Amino acid sequence: MQKTETVCKLLILIIMVCLLSGCWDRKELEAKAYVIGLGIDASKHKGNINVTMLLANPEVGSMQGGGGSTEKPREIITFEANDFIAAKATANAIISRSISYELLKIIVVSEEYASDKEFIKTIYDTLKDKEIRLNSYLAVSKEKASEYFLKNRPKMETRPHKYYQFMVEHGIENGLIPDSTLLRFFKTIERGTDLFLAMYTTAIRQKNPEYKKEDEYIAGQVGATGELDDTQFMGSAVFRNGKMIDKLTGEETRTVNILDDSTNIKDILVDIPNPFPGSDKQMSARMFKIGNNKVEMNVKGARPKIFITVPLQYEILSNPSMVNFAVKKNQQILKEKVREDYRTINEDFFKKTQTELKGVPYSLSISARKYFGTVQEYKKFNWAKSYLKADIHVIPEIEIVDYGKQVRKPLKMGD
Prior knowledge:
By secondary structure, the chain is of the alpha/beta class. It folds into two domains: 29-260, no CATH class; 266-415, 2-Layer Sandwich (GMP Synthetase, Chain A, domain 3), CATH 3.30.300. It contains twelve helices and 14 strands. The strands form two sheets. Strands 1, 2, 3, 4, 5, 6, 7, 8 and 9 form a nine-stranded mixed sheet that branches. Strand 1 (32-42) and strand 2 form a beta hairpin.
């Protein structure tokens, strides 16, 4: 009896030791090849896709790799596959290390394939791989995704994961690209009532681009010279039901980001019209969104009415006409101009969403649901159709908290 108890205790001890040892499936860092960027293009063979993998070398730039490492910081491969999951097995026929999506930052799909009805079936495969996180970003490239990754060679960032992290985070903070995570994409698809915006990018700079305001460009149109990478992130690709239908400029994308309370946009540099004589130059300002928007609707009648109040603060950064803002009248003139300009930009954009895009590119439909007692009433209202004939008013609550440093006008020669 005592011998049996001893054997049982020994077995329990062995089982506990096995359970506590969590390193049985451990893999060394150098044994994995981490996919930072994933590209998707159409294939010549129906049902397949061309997959491009941007692979990062985790040792380059790290303490383990040392300062004198001669290994490449990245590797790019493109091949045909059935889906993302099968692609990992195919890649291991070329890459010596185990392929991992654990550090995937961005999925880039070509504009051509994003406009194809097959794209939605392909992107849903990301939900089947547990390594792909839903905070990964979805972007659309003007060219093929395979060409995009090959041409994208950052001058300042050796490590590709840092490059995409910085470019995307700063673009979202400035409002010039949308916060287009996979989570937002799938939530929008599930609602079925709104449009989705994915960030737009390209590694091909347009030759002799037309000069526009700082935020009226889309990627590729920004004229810049010098020793720099050609890749640009600006504007957005518009999706309806998982298919790309149009593009928005940086200014239009920023307009949506300010209207959408779920974004993290707060501090924005903008240009505003100069209402004062003496200079044709626009005024520069820093704009702050200081709270959530207030949305009110009247859904009774044939034409719904929507009122959106946006709370904003401004700091004036430039004064090309050298106006004396110590004078209250000048402050009021500027405030009215800012209010009218913001209202016009937003209401013109809403008209475009109704006439051209045929939908609203953020979750405004959620605000409408509280006006209905039941789901059946909301479905009968038919948001997708009712929105197109809605009367939309944007009411900016403008507060200018800083008019900048007051500078005296320079004296004329001889004065």
